[in-house]
Design goal:
Elements: H1 3-12, H2 37-40, E1 44-52, E2 55-67, E3 70-83, E4 86-100, E5 103-113, E6 116-124, E7 129-132, E8 137-140, E9 160-162, E10 169-171, E11 173-184, E12 187-197, E13 203-208, E14 214-221, E15 224-232, E16 235-237, E17 243-245
Amino acid sequence: MNPTLKTLMRGAAVAAAAMSPGFVGADDGVGFPAQSAEQATPEKTWNFRVFLDDQEIGYHEFRVLPKAGGQRVEIKAEFAVKFLFITAYRYRHQNEEIWRDGCLTAIRSSTDNNGEQLEVSGTLSQQGFRLGTGQAESLLPTDCLQSFAYWNRDIVHASHLLNAQTGELVAVDVLDRGPETIEVAGRAVDVRRYSITMEGDPIELWYHAEDGAWLALEAPAGGRVLRYEPRDLPFKVGADGHLVLD
């Protein structure tokens, strides 16, 4: 793989993943019961346009739905990187997760990584988190597993995060870079910036200083910059920089 694209995948899509057809709402006995009308609303949606430098390459969407005792999260991402008008790399990724008390309890994902098919599924048991990738099965001895769930600011306290694309449990260092001011929807907003560092370059995240809501992401990509520009957020930004829930 081109080093730029390899870095792009490491930094940009490390949290994304894809559900198979018919998966949403199915009850397969591993923690994904069908949703009732009450559970289906309300929801919070983050939908970002994704850019590589100034080139728009796709989108990344997170839908967080209330579920009895926790949250149901649906994630979709699609990127297409072009060079000289030729699509050199294509990526499709969707993922469904169940969270309770800030911890991941079930996951099922599939990914088309430029033709390479990847599958991950897992569920929390009394022995730990049982995870399968289609290639191998493992038991992660943890009672609170977390993925690269950018929507959940609690991940900035984690020492390891699950890559939902590969099933790899990744050691991370998180640096609190302190307060900053950025522009969101044409408004100046006070935020707090965090850097999540793995092998290679860090992922930069910005959260609202007061509400803790996720607002922005950037990641280096082989000498270029991958960034997320919000298309839809689960709130509006007021003239004073405060967030107003939709």
